[in-house]
Write a structure and sequence with these properties.
The structure holds 2 protein chains of 2 kinds. Chain A contains 8 helices and 2 strands, in the order βααααααααβ. By secondary structure, chain A is mostly helical. Chain A has a single domain, classed as Di-copper center containing domain from catechol oxidase (di-copper center containing domain from catechol oxidase, Orthogonal Bundle), CATH 1.10.1280.10. A two-stranded parallel ribbon of chain A has the order 1-2. The longest helix of chain A has 19 residues. Chain B has a single domain, classed as protein ne1242 fold, CATH 3.30.1880. Chain B starts with a strand and ends in a 27-residue tail after the last helix. Classes of the chains: A mainly alpha, B alpha+beta. At the A-B interface, helix 2 and helix 6 of A face helix 3 of B.
């Protein structure tokens, strides 16, 4: 029986408490920091060599789908009623809206050092000391909307631009492709400045603080953001039912992408699972 | 205005135009080794670069190092020699206030840092400045510590082929 992932703005008080409590328990056990490390380790950029699985690659979506499932399984071992909610940033667009409330993720970082001082993940609680970080900071940081040079969250029309594209991904299967749903959603643009940050990438920037960097998983909003990105993949699938994950076959030895991306029926490291097997998760969970 | 430590304006010229992305797998373990070595090297570099401008930049030509104060932070970078001698293996060793900052390269030749990981910039210097912009007030990069495999430098799982 599939369980339901809900819009975070619709969670009851009890659902919020249990979700937060399960996250804190994973953190206490040290399991949470394994997720932080894993995400850092699998960030391989496309201008450097090697197999890309998590970013700048077709498997951006299935990689994060499986990553979320692993986190969700860990949460459900703590409390079997918990599922990962999603944050629809086309609707909840301000620093005072869900999920930035004191009973959920807490609010913005304070001006002096961007430290999050409200809610269950505030450093002063003693429950959320950051261990794996790019900086020497040991507290959660946010700079919602980037106060010094404000930017807006992506809009519904930004998303629709991605969802309209019937092709999942195109050659050369990296951050430079300008067509295909995957990169339009992942959000690597061309040029510089704020137009270059789209959809998924832009949300990381809007949240700021640790979410901007390699250790973004330290902010639990990472999961709510990626649950929404995952939901968008299912929306795209529903809209383009004849289209599937690409590439269907691995790029050949003459391709510059040879052994650098994961094709539909290849294993997706670090798991023993293929994008083909992750395309339909409807038997595990559905979105409300 | 951005100036180097000796008051000379620093211009970020186009970076070496290497063909990015080859079969050489850049492992994070390699980057770790490189950065730790570079951290030691950079202890000497400031003495050299602070006394003269970085390699003259004429007409925006390539520069192979930078050394400047930006928003109160000391940014230093040198183009690192690579074992392969191939332009594609361009790597910069960067520090902010003496602490290493790992840069990654995109296939379009632009650069991104571990601090600002979801957008990229035309030159290493611009990527480093953006990283400083992304740091909170008073927030510093992690110090290089060979005893601990910092996640922003060395892989814990090391599974990248």
């Amino acid at each position: 029986m599939a369980y339901i992932r809900k819009d975070v703005s619709t969670l009851t008080g009890a659902e919020r408490r249990r979700f937060v409590k399960a996250l804190l328990e994973l953190k206490r056990r040290g399991e949470y920091d394994e997720f932080v490390r894993m995400h850092i380790d699998y960030y391989v950029s496309d201008g450097d060599g090697g197999l890309r699985t998590a970013h700048m690659a077709p498997s951006f979506l299935p990689w994060h789908r499986r990553f979320l499932l692993d986190l969700e399984r860990a949460l459900r071992r703590v409390d079997s009623s918990v599922t990962v909610p999603y944050w629809d940033w086309t609707r909840d667009r301000t620093a005072r809206a869900a999920p930035w409330t004191d009973d959920l993720l807490g609010g913005n970082g304070r001006r002096s050092d961007h430290q999050v001082t409200t809610g269950p993940f505030a450093y002063a609680t003693g429950d959320w000391t950051i261990k794996e970080n790019v900086t020497d900071g040991n507290f959660l940081t946010r700079d919602l909307g980037r106060a010094a040079d404000p930017i807006a969250l992506p809009t519904a029309s930004d998303l629709d631009w991605a969802l309209r594209d019937p092709v999942y991904d195109t050659e050369p299967w990296d951050s430079t492709v300008t067509r295909g749903f995957r990169n339009k959603l992942e959000g690597w643009g061309t040029g510089s400045g704020s137009v270059a940050w789209r959809n998924h990438n832009r949300v990381h920037r809007w949240v700021g603080g640790v979410m901007l960097g390699g250790a973004s998983v330290n902010d639990p909003v990472f999961w709510l953001h990626h649950a929404f990105v995952d939901l968008l993949w299912t929306r795209w699938q529903n809209r383009h039912r004849e289209h599937r994950y690409l590439p269907a076959e691995p790029p050949g030895p003459t391709s510059r992408q040879y052994r650098r991306v994961v094709a539909r029926r290849e294993k997706l490291p670090p798991w023993d699972v293929t994008p083909d097997q992750l395309e339909d998760a409807s038997r595990i969970y559905r979105y409300a | 205005m951005v100036v180097s430590v000796d008051g000379v304006p620093v211009t970020a010229g186009p970076v070496v135009t290497g063909r990015p992305g080859t079969a050489h797998g850049t492992r994070r373990r390699d980057l770790l080794r490189g950065l730790l070595g570079a951290a030691a090297a950079l202890a000497i570099v400031p003495v050299v670069t602070a006394s003269r401008p970085t390699r003259p930049v004429e007409g925006g030509g390539p520069a192979d190092s930078f050394d400047e104060i930006y928003r109160g932070r000391h940014l230093q970078g040198v183009l690192a020699p690579t074992g392969h001698g191939a332009a594609a293996d361009v790597r910069w060793d960067i520090t902010v206030d003496g602490r290493p900052l790992h840069l990654m390269r995109r296939a379009d030749g632009t650069w991104l840092s571990m601090v600002d990981h979801y957008s990229s910039y035309p030159t290493p210097l611009e990527a480093v400045r953006a990283a400083v912009d992304g740091l909170g007030p008073g927030e510093r990069l992690r110090a290089a510590d060979p005893a601990h495999h910092h996640p922003h430098m060395g892989g814990h799982h090391g599974l990248h082929p």
